[in-house]
Amino acid sequence: MSLVNSSVDGSTDVLVEVTDLTVGFGSLRAVDGLSFSLEKGAALGLVGESGSGKSTVASALLGLHRGTGADVGGSVRVAGIDVQEASDADLRLLRGGKAAMVFQDPLSSLDPYYAIGDQIAEVYRVHTRVSRRAARARAVEVLDRVGIPDALRRSRSRPHEFSGGMRQRALIAMALACEPDLLIADEPTTALDVTVQAQILDLLHTLREETGLGLLLVTHDVGVAAESVDEILVMRHGRAVEHGPVDTVLGAPTEPYTRDLLGAVPRVDVPRAPSEASLTNAEVVLEATGLRREFGRGKRAFAAVDDVSLTIHRGETLGIVGESGSGKTTLGRMLVGLLKPTAGEIKPGGGVRPDVQMVFQDPVSSLNPRRSVGESIADPLRARGERDEGRIRGRVSELLERVGLEGAHYDRYPHEFSGGQRQRVGIARALAADPRVIVCDEPVSALDVTTQAQVVALLGELQRELGLALVFVAHDLAVVRQVSDRVAVMRRGRIVEQGPADEVYDSPQDPYTKQLLAAVPALDPQVAAQRRAVRRELATA
Amino acid sequence: MSGFGGFVLRRGIGTVITLLAISVIVYVVFFVTPGNVAQITCGPRCSPEQVHQVAQQLRLDDPLYLRYWHFLQGILVGQDYSTGTSVEHCSAPCLGLSYQGDQQVTQLILAKLPVSLSLVFGAMVLWLILGVGTGVLSAWRRGRFTERLLTGITLAGVATPVFVIGLVLMIVVCGQLQLLPFPQYVGLTDDPEQWAWNLLLPWLSLALIEAAAFARLTRASMLETLAEDHIRTFRAYGVGERSIIGRHALRGAFAPIIALNANNVGSAVGGAVLTETLFGLPGIGQELVHAVNVVDLPVVVGMVLVIGFFVVIANAVADVLYAVADRRVVLA
Amino acid sequence: MRQPSVIARRVAVASVSLAVAAGAAACGPKDNDAKGSGGDSTPHKGGTLTVLNSNPQEDFDPARLYTSGGGNVPSLVFRTLTTRNRENGAAGAKVVPDLATDTGRPNKDATVWTYTLKKGLKYEDGTAITSADIKYGIERSFAPELSGGAPYLRDWLVGAADYQGPYKDKKGLSAIETPDSLTIVFHLNKPEGEFPYLATQTQFTPVPKAKDTGTKYEQHPISSGPYKVVSNQNDGETLVLERNKYWSTATDAERKAYPDKIDVKSGLDSSVINQRLSSSQGTDAAAVTTDTNLGPAELAKVTGDKELAARVGTGHFGYTNYIAFNPTVAPFNNVKVRQAISYAIDRSSVVNAAGGSSLAEAATTFLPNQKSFGYDPYDLFPAGASGNAAKAKELLKEAGYPKGITVTLTHSNDKDFETSPEIATAIQDALKKAGITVKLQGLEINDYKDKIHSVKTEPGFFLAHWGADWPSGGPFLAPIFDGRQIVKDGANFNTGLLNDKSVNAEIDAINKLTNLDEAAKRWGALDKKIGEQALTVPLFHPVYKRLVGKDIKNVVISDWTGVLDISQVAVK
Amino acid sequence: MSEALVASQPAGTDVSVPAGSGARQFWRRLRAQRAALVAAVVVALLVLVALAAPLLTAIEGQDPFTYHPSLIDSARGGVPTGSLGGITADHWLGVEPQTGRDLFARLAYGARVSLGVALGATVVQVTIGVVIGVAAALGSRWVDQLLSRITDIIVAMPLMIMSLALLAIVPSSFPRPLLVALVIGLIAWGNIAKIVRAQTLTLKELDYVSAARLSGWGTWRIARRELLPGLAAPVITYAALLVPINITTEAALSFLGVGVKPPTPSWGQMLTAADVWYQAAPQYLLLPAGALFVTVLSLTVLGDGIRTALDPRAASRLRIGTGRKREAKADASAKGTTTKSANSKEASS
């Protein structure tokens, strides 16, 4: 205790001092003996996969575990306040006043019912005795500061009237309102499109440059951390695995886990070994021409997919990449037949029934929680008229084993599996129908990078073995490059660029493709700085 | 604004279809209901000849479709009727004449409606205060004794029929404690103070029954909101618990409360039969039950249509309010 | 008449199957206990009387009202040729002159009745009342638009059967003559010694033709009585009556009319009415009810409270609740079965179900237990208080049912404690001892009435009741037992389908009598004679107990109505 | 009472994708809630009392139909003569005024009718509601329009009035408790249909339903295997609310004179007869009122418990009402999202 006190008295520039922090929820230890410190104006990245305890640390800095029944040990000092010992009132002063937090999902992190300006003003008034009117003025000021155009008018809008990036800017504005010393950003860009993510990261960068904010960035994305921080702390199972300057940790990792983590991160700039299929110009298995799909009626009608034509060959992977709202999921659903096109047609190559199956994004919602996984996988078999239980079980076990699970898992329920395993179950179910084409709709975006790599590897393996054609729909450019022979870039329902993966990635023709590629965070801080410069150019151009 | 115009138009058409369907159902159902209408109207000791005369007078011998057509005609163009000494006109929309009292149904409704509306809207204020208040308290004190007590009390309201609650309240409050007069409807325009004073007990009885649903809904919505991410945001910014509960959590409960409230208000206009009966309030529900008992078809149809109208309108209003409360919703 | 709404449920309202607005006969001695609790019991003029009722006065047209003796509230507005004597007890069962100078002058065989109006009679607007107005009032009651009254005029007046009222038939009824403005003569198609009783009904009230507004007349009927209608809201739900300054005690010996104003508030729940009367707060202190009796629960409470008990008025109306048999339906075609049931009946449990011994008196006669009906206390099938099971079994054995029988009792589902499920279950329980298994068939009230009053659908064994149109055996026995009153294609009340020549002849003979005391004796004897056929099992006669507000004075309860006479009540 | 039954609850529109599944998890989570357990025990006891009514009354030595005129004071309206409403060793809860029938026996037999009618009506409501709701959600636009309109009509019809009319139409030979259950069930299914429709609309957008369609199954099979289990949580929760509402509806119908007929006892009928006796014989009123209260309370608590056990995400939250749907997935366009919210709204009104 006395030690810590002296360090504050000693007017050192320590902003955050965490000593031997443990946080337990019942029998689970989310954080286990973590120590680190952060100086004023510095930036630290907490990097780890899900369950590593990184977000718990962020909450602990603001004492958010108080009153929740969590078991917190060790000490946490932020801006001179002992978070463990502080009174409720002092804690409220800390929260938002000295250290402000930016959350992952900007939509759900704002109250949907109040205007954004009012929400910022409310927070401001908690920490500063000012009139309502002055608080509103301050809200407009910070909104303007984070680059929201026409801030006065927009401050009266509610969160749903903002785009995702705007919302995140608004949250950052809220954080800035009380001029805190520390900004804690918990996965601030995870829910955003890659171009928007780049803008937000740039904003954070600028703010740090201009105000000298300390930054604690919590992220699962090594690339995001590389772009934004000076130091990195890699976490796993609640403990620190490796801690050091960003160059060192990313450039020359000493711990095997860090190496694995980095190895699993897909790189946008590394070409993929081309598959045989793409070389041999195999037969066409699916052909779509002039696809169009509208939603809504009357004035509210809009086309999610507009005049899209594709061909898919046996054994190849077609990557479809685009940001949210680009229509890529709609396109995927039309390809498998879950949605009927408003116009255009889809026909199987060579007149054979296409047998298109799908692997879904969300491993939680894609399996019926009330049925055993075996039953779900057996569905296509039964639907085709197979009645022999023994044969069904045999085939399902075979499929389970094929995707890296155990045949005995037949009777288990989805919740007994991890995310990656569920995705494997989803793949097995798709395979059960003996498809020629599988449309994978963001199959790995909900998974941790290491799991992601394994699932991607599995898909590749299956493709080679079974001669499957894959349509790989994703927003992550790096993953798409990793798996695709050919790539189509979608924007606002249209394909803006289509071609062999290497061509599209290495010499993009369409300005939108260029913009996308420039937005991808780089692992190398130097490259990141270069990209930032390119983005500025593109933005001003 | 064209969106709102379209909404009104669509709802308008929907309302008309619903009401027409309801009137047909009522006609058919009451056509097969036992009870010799002419005999009831004429009196038990009327001779067969007299009964026949009355039946002719009331067009009871016409086939059902003709009677229904006559009813529709009345709505569209009105209808003439004889008082014996003169011919009167019941102007469109005319819902016909009561078999029993020769009163115009429209006038009967106009006479009864203020009572029902007074009862329902007054009770609504009370049940919102009681229900939402209780809900907020129990969301705040969740898991503690206060919450259990409040839950128990509101559920007692649900579990006890109004004819028990109302009677006991009346005997205790008006009879023994003499705090309030025995309820007797006084028109709002005649004497607003007496109006409120007399209706207080009926309001309370009705409100006690409805409050529980609102308490549960409020509590549930608030707890749901409290578990949402944006509450965490405001906690992380040092916003106090009072403001979190009162400003953010409660705000999240508005929309569902509005929906439930509209639903209840709409159906209580005709549904508060027992409250009206017990307290002797001459409202729609009481009149309707009476009309059913004497198979007074025009009155039954008219009243049921009015009630249906209120339910439909209440829901439309709820949709609009809901869209105002939650701007993310579009009217459809 | 109107059916009391289902809602006015808890207490049996004094609605005779027929008479709505008036009640019944009196209890014995003049009850001092019914007097106001204040020291000065002399009634004075002035003040406002409040009437708290459960059923609205939906009909306020004299043509449509079905009353016994002119009704209670209606008789404040409508004077008739004759009226009931406003006195306590048996004296109150007498008919006395009202507008007329006497109770009517019959010709020799009582087929022509002549009345002379008093002089100086005026309506509320000061115009004179003429005999032509009385004739017009009666003619109106024949209009289908204004149906609802008692059937006697149509049955008795010469050539009235097909008459459709003055709106359709401008010629009018030739059976009524008005030789001058004060004289009115009625020509009947058969002798009717009880015509003076009929002349108490509201159809005999004068209606000025110029003021007739047809079906709208009830909103403002022209008063001939001590009060006029100032306001009538919601079809009789709230009525305000104020003094008619053209009425005078000089021409009206019957109505006292003490209060200046009368407020009638109805549509109230019966338990609320009784609670309000017992609390007697504010204007309720000067309140009475003309349609709500004390129920058993309220009686239990009131009897424990001296102050309240002193404010209870007790009366008897000529009324009988009974079981009816249809002798064309097996096994009730066997008189022994009917007798067996008569012996088996446990009247004490039926009385309990009807509210206990204070609210119902066990009945062994069809005629009510009052002198004016010619009451003869016979008990042809003595069942004692709780039934004679042995005798019943014996009779059943004789009838060929040694192992007992199973029968279906039809009743209504109304909560009136008369033909209602409570009474039916009590009978079910009571007959069990005699080996008679009763199945219950409860019908909705309209269905029930349709069924029991149609010769085509009449069940074999059902609950029924009958009330007096006036306190005499005639209207009590004739509709139920006169073979010529069997209606084949309409509402039939001769449920026993009795068409016995000797009975018919005796009815005709009694009707010729104009000496009503003599007639009463013969009605009593006839009742006993019919009783031998066991077509009905009399169950009980109701007793009416009603509370009055604490400031009410001069409570008069006649044997005619059985309830307090509102025209006699004072609040000061 | 009518007020209670018209008090419809708006639709719950959140989609639960319960993490857990299988009966075992359900029981484990249900057992974890003490209040729900106690409520379950109480409900079980009530059902047991109802089922064992003949046995229990035989132990007491009474039946619900026999009159005991000696135990009441006829001159005082038939009030029970003994103390505490005539409680004796023979009559555990006293006797009924006016008849002297045994109150314990009537209460026990009344439980049969009240619970039976309420459960029967609930089964009818749930069956119709689920069929109509699912058909509307899965059918074509026209089917949906038609069924939704019918639902609107049902909701807009005054329940009491239609009950009065329907109960009068059916011949009296039809078993009355069954009839009352049927009538309540046939008239008051509108809200559950709305809830089910909204829930199904959201469920059918879930990936696992799409996956089942890709497997080649038809609509019927998907409805049965994939949708119905997902509807269980909201439907069971709502049904637990409907049961007490239906009990009070039966009481209200008794009050209006069209409920179950004497001598068959039901709590509603007892309440109706007893309310005027509250001053003269309080226990006559308090017994059925207390029984009703305990039933409603325990069913409500149990319903909440079941809900929590079925959907742990809602743990510690009671839900009757509308939940705002979380904004849709990353790829949903802005317009798509608003339309979805509108759907859920539509269903809740």
Describe this structure in words.
Chain A is an alpha/beta fold. Chain A has 21 helices and 19 strands. In chain A, strands 6-7-8-3-9-10 form a six-stranded mixed beta sheet, sandwiched between helices. In chain A, helix 14 packs across helix 15 and helix 15 packs across helix 16. The longest helix of chain A is centred in the middle third of the chain and has 18 residues. By secondary structure, chain B is mainly α. Chain B is 74% helix and 2% strand. Chain B is globular. In chain C, strands 8-9-10-1-11 form a five-stranded mixed beta sheet, with no helix packed on it. Chain C has 572 residues and is α+β, with helices and mostly antiparallel strands. The longest helix of chain C has 16 residues. Chains in contact: A-B, A-D, B-C, B-D, C-D. Chains B and D meet through helix 1, helix 6, helix 7, helix 8 and helix 10 of B and helix 1, helix 6, helix 7, helix 11 and helix 12 of D.
Q: TL;DR?
A:
Chain A has 541 residues and is of the alpha/beta class. Chain A has 21 helices and 19 strands. The model of chain A is unreliable at 1-11 (pLDDT under 50).
Explain the layout of strands and helices:
The complex is a heterotetramer of chains A (541), B (332), C (572) and D (349).
Chain B: H1 2-32, H2 37-42, H3 48-57, H4 64-77, E1 79-82, E2 87-90, H5 105-140, H6 145-159, H7 162-176, H8 192-226, H9 229-236, H10 241-271, H11 273-279, H12 284-293, H13 297-325
Antiparallel strand pairs in B: 1-2
Helix pairs in contact in B: 1-13, 5-6, 5-8, 5-10, 5-13, 6-8, 7-8, 7-11, 8-10, 10-13, 11-12, 12-13
Chain C: E1 48-52, E2 82-84, E3 95-97, E4 105-106, E5 112-116, H1 131-140, H2 152-156, E6 176-177, E7 183-187, H3 195-198, E8 227-233, E9 238-243, E10 261-265, H4 270-279, E11 287-288, H5 296-302, H6 306-309, E12 312-315, E13 319-325, H7 335-344, H8 347-353, E14 360-362, H9 389-398, E15 405-412, H10 421-432, E16 436-443, H11 445-452, E17 461-467, H12 474-481, H13 501-512, H14 516-531, E18 536-542, E19 544-547
Parallel strand pairs in C: 1-10, 1-11, 15-16
Antiparallel strand pairs in C: 2-3, 4-5, 5-7, 6-7, 8-9, 9-10, 12-19, 13-17, 13-18, 14-18
Helix pairs in contact in C: 7-9, 8-10, 13-14
Chain D: H1 2-6, H2 22-31, H3 34-51, H4 53-60, E1 72-73, E2 79-80, H5 103-138, H6 141-156, H7 159-169, H8 176-187, H9 190-203, H10 207-215, H11 219-255, H12 267-274, H13 282-310, H14 334-348
Antiparallel strand pairs in D: 1-2
Helix pairs in contact in D: 2-13, 3-5, 3-13, 4-5, 5-6, 5-8, 5-9, 5-11, 6-9, 7-8, 9-11, 9-14, 10-11, 11-12, 11-13, 12-13
